[in-house]
Amino acid sequence: MQNINQTLGQYSELFMLLAALAYTAGFLAFTWDLVKSSRRIREIEAALAESAGDRELVLAGAVAGKGGKAAGDGAAPAGATADDAMNYQGERRTIARIAVVLTVLAAAIHAVAVVTRGVAAGRVPWGNMYEFCTTGGLVVAVVFLLVLTRKDLRFLGTFVIGLVVVMLCAATIGFPTPVANLVPALQSYWLIIHVSVAVAASALFTLTFAMSVLQLMQANRVARLAAGGDDRLPFMRLVPSALSLENLSYRINAIAFVLWTFTLMAGAIWAEKAWGRYWGWDTKEVWTFVIWVVYAGYLHARATRGWTGTRAAWLSIVGYLCIVFNFTIVNIYFSGLHSYAGV
Amino acid sequence: MATKDRSGDIALPALGFLGTLRWVWTQLTSMRTALFLLLLLAVAAVPGSLFPQRPANPAVVTQYIRDNPETGPVLDWFQLFDVYSSVWFSAIYLLLFISLIGCVVPRAIAHGRAWRSRPPRTPRRLTRMPVHGAFTVPAGPDGQPGGQEGGRPASAGAAVVDAASVLKKRGYRVDVRDENGNQPSVGAERGFLKELGNLVFHVSLIGVLISVAVGGLFGYRGQKILVEGETFVNTLVGYDSFTPGTNFSEDNLDPYSITLEKFEVQFDRQLTHYGQPIDFTATMTTRSAPGEEPERQILKVNEPLTIGDTSVYLVGNGYAPVVTVRDGEGNIAHQGPVVSIPQDGLFTSLMVLKVPDAQPDQLGFVGFFLPTAAIDENGVSFSRDPDPFLPQLNLNSYYGDLGLDDGEPQNVYVLDTDTLTELNSRNSEAGGIVLDAGETVELPDGKGSITFDGLRRYAALDITHDPAELGALLFSSLALAGLSASLFIGRRRIWVRAGTTDDGRISVEYGLLARGEDHRLAGEGAAVEKLLRDRWLADSAEDNENETAHAGAPATGSGKDN
Ligand code: HEM
């Protein structure tokens, strides 16, 4: 049996705290960027309104997204707004850059923390709630950074990095667990396969959750603007149109759904190995199934007339809430065979 | 397509019986119904995680109903303790699968037809396509045959033939039209695997469902607790409990035998997780049939044994103190290990012993086995380590009629003390029985004695047979493959048309159309155009002044392939 390296484990915990601090700084920078950019947009707007007295013009960019499929080719919105293809534009957003740099730094420290934890335990670092949370948070951050290399999703930073901070806090405050060996039930290579894919899928679902929330907010805001209301969420000017958010989150959800399907299957295979049946409606299995069906519903909705857009976004959000529920409430309060929460 | 929804027409015209049937069928197989049923299925699955379920935990359900005499029976009436075999849950998934079949069959037929037909005819105006472009190339030198690799096309027809071969290499099915006319064109289509994948995915779900059903019909599952040194023979009477499939017959059991030689447990001795188990190892001797060579095998959690056509799983373990009970007449009324049920991580274990053979009165014992006994400040005994450093029995004893003779089945782990008279307990005059290993205690009133002889461990085994397991694995893997194909393959059409301009150059225009969501369409257009240009203009830089018209990329399209 592997000997646990407690000293290394303590270093890992220290790094985890440092990572949480760095993420918090990144989160603040992302938020500052949102505030600052939206203030700038207001200034431009005010200036424009003064010179031209034409409010419609400035709003055009934001409103373009509300229409049908063709909306995407609408003119790029004013100022620093992300374009609908979410490609990087000429405009330099210094604070957003600082935020990204801070996030990269945080993710690097975080990676060290997760790796040292694994080394200290002599196994993969996802054997209890603390480890699911910390490793999951790392995957969320890394996936976000990877997507950032191709698409300008910096507008998501506040939300995604905010979620990572929440995950790290939940892990360190909610389920602190010192490094330890695995209980026999978890000593299987299926732990590596099943859980890593589940974590990856959940990370992607986290991104799409944030995007779906923004999509709903954007759709709502645009509808209000179109009805002549005033802009209560000016920072949303930085966010692409609801339609492009929907399309991108559909693509990510599709990948995540395939991963989740695999998670479900791998879990069934493991259950067969461990308990002699591949499916037994254990609470954890029930919720994994529910999540799978909700996202299958989401994919169907995308192909059903009258169900795309807002309703599909709601399904994506409900699916994510089920994931959170499955991870927190089910792990902690529901008894079942999967009682490895370690809390 | 059967998936077109036709809801919204609320006013029902008089349809007649057949008409009504057809209407019901169209509704059932509509995409909207499928979506509705899917969401309903998700909701319906939830109660199964909120209430205890009979198949997994019958005793807990009984207890729940006893504890909630008001709501329990109502919940039971709604089958909330048997959610996954309930009428309503079954109705939902059966409807869903009927809908699925009704949806898949017409689509499969349509897809089969599409597979055999030629790519659709070239639209008159390619500029109407969501992705389109046009450019011109100089015609090839006289005499040089068109369509040659790397050369300029000699004519519009040759350009189209070239384009066809480029597209074919990219996996398109191509069809050249009007090659020698003045508007030659090629129509191409790819991504048939997308729809095929979707069909395979949905059909495989039916396969998974059937596999589950077959497993339920022909499989079986049994439990056996095996104390070190004991042997299990795979016959019906050998099991402690047995759940046969609907079509099970006893002849299905292979007459193998398993002996538990040794059961070893290792606990974590690091301070942070002191006492947490880190290894369970059961050493077994197996015989595949009576008289066969014995074979030594190791059974661990996550590493089942395969024997006969069953698999044997290690699902639990605990201590079985060896106890001898002498009755009031001095005869041995019981001798042997008694399985105790661990109640916590420290293996504080509940123990019940019924001695029906004791004379003149039957005897019963109930209490705890403590692997490492200790006494807390209130004088209550507890175990402070899961390893047996100081094994001890703490028992109450009773005499009277155990009620075993009237043939009613009883739970061996529960002693009903209502009809019995107490001999020993903490509150009785004689006090409770406290036995360290090797000790004997006399029962009051000359009712007999009890001796704690020693300690063995036991392994709780699950033994299962599921003939359709492989089918379920196969179909779910197919489903996964089909799903990936369906989600990640793009189904697209592309048309390229060539003509000759007034100054003798060759004009090329193309248009692309995707079926369903395809964010890579613009990228594909750009890639095809580049391939054609490279092929035709590779050797001449000066031709690059050709202007290209790009327009109308779809919402997410940016011309970048990602
Ligand atoms: C057991 C129930 C079902 C499940 C779990 C399920 C799941 C899925 C999933 C995950 C997809 C997205 C992947 C893909 O495009 O291939 C999908 C697509 C699709 N499903 Fe189902 N489905 C079910 C039943 C049905 C039924 C009853 C219908 C017909 C009414 C149907 C029609 C379709 C269609 C037409 C698509 C393609 C949508 C598109 O073009 O994007 N499905 N299904």
Automatic annotation (TrEMBL), chain A:
Primary residence: membrane
Highest taxon listed in the record's lineage: Bacteria
Keyword Membrane part of the UniProt annotation: yes
Topology within the bilayer: Multi-pass membrane protein
Record's GO cellular component terms: plasma membrane
Domain named Cytochrome c assembly protein: residues: 126-338
Single annotated GO MF: heme binding
InterPro entries, sorted: Cyt_c_assembly, Cyt_c_biogenesis_CcsA, Cyt_c_biogenesis_CcsA/CcmC
One Pfam family this sequence matches: Cytochrom_C_asm
A single BP term in Gene Ontology: cytochrome complex assembly
Keyword line: Cytochrome c-type biogenesis, Membrane, Transmembrane, Transmembrane helix
Residue spans crossing the bilayer: 14-35, 95-116, 128-148, 155-177, 189-214, 252-271, 286-301, 313-334
Official protein name in the record: Cytochrome c-type biogenesis protein CcsB
Native source organism of the sequence: Arthrobacter subterraneus
TrEMBL record, chain B:
GO biological process, alphabetically ordered: cytochrome complex assembly
GO cellular component terms listed in the entry, alphabetical order: membrane
Topological category with respect to the lipid bilayer: Multi-pass membrane protein
Pfam families, A to Z: ResB
Membrane-spanning residues: 34-51, 87-109, 199-220
Record key words, sorted: Cytochrome c-type biogenesis, Membrane, Transmembrane, Transmembrane helix
Domain ResB-like: 31-523
Subcellular location: Membrane
Chain spans, region Disordered: 539-562
Domain of life: Bacteria
UniProt xrefs under InterPro entries: Cyt_c_bgen_Ccs1/CcsB/ResB, ResB-like_domain
PANTHER family to which the protein is assigned, alphabetical: CYTOCHROME C BIOGENESIS PROTEIN CCS1, CHLOROPLASTIC (PTHR31566)
Protein name: Cytochrome c biogenesis protein
